[in-house]
Amino acid sequence: MNARNVLIFLLILSALINGVNGFFDARNFQAPTWFLLTSMFLLNITIFYWYRLDSIQRSFKRSIWLNIGVIFISLIAIPSYILLRSERGAWLRPFVRMIGYITLLFVTGIACGIAGEMVGKMVG
């Protein structure tokens, strides 16, 4: 599996989680704690797996602190990783791609959340 496939999987996983959350919202249920914890765990592991594959592909030596950061504070650690792995002066394109991917995650998440709510209202 390559890093690009992991990003596609992350997009699908995020869409499914948002769809299920939308379904719970439409039914006026609070999402079970096990679902929230499992979702967070799967998202964090998937992000770390992407980071691991990408760093191996680019022959980037990962530090223990960056590994820990990717797991616990990925909103800061991933942009830091992209800055560190980029060639000197060539960081703008990877940052724009990251922002585009994050935007795609948000748009897909919103759409799947709305779809989950619609399904939840139709069922109940």
Contiguous low-pLDDT stretches (5 residues minimum) are none
Q: Approximately how much beta-strand content do the residues carry? A: under 5%
Gyration radius over CA: 17 Å
Into which percent range does the helicity of residues fall? Answer: over 70%
Overall 3D shape: elongated
Number of helices: 5
Count the strands?
0
Q: Give the total of domains.
A: 1
Q: How do the SSEs run, as a string of H and E?
A: HHHHH
First-residue to last-residue Cα separation? 40 Å
Main sheet, how many strands, which sense, barrel?
Answer: none
Kindly report the average pLDDT value. Answer: 94
User: From the helix content, strand content and strand pairing, which structural class follows?
Assistant: mainly alpha
Key phrases:
mainly alpha
Folded structure, characterized:
It is a single chain. The protein is mostly helical. It has one domain. It is 82% helix and 0% strand. The protein starts with a helix and ends with a helix. The mean pLDDT is 94.
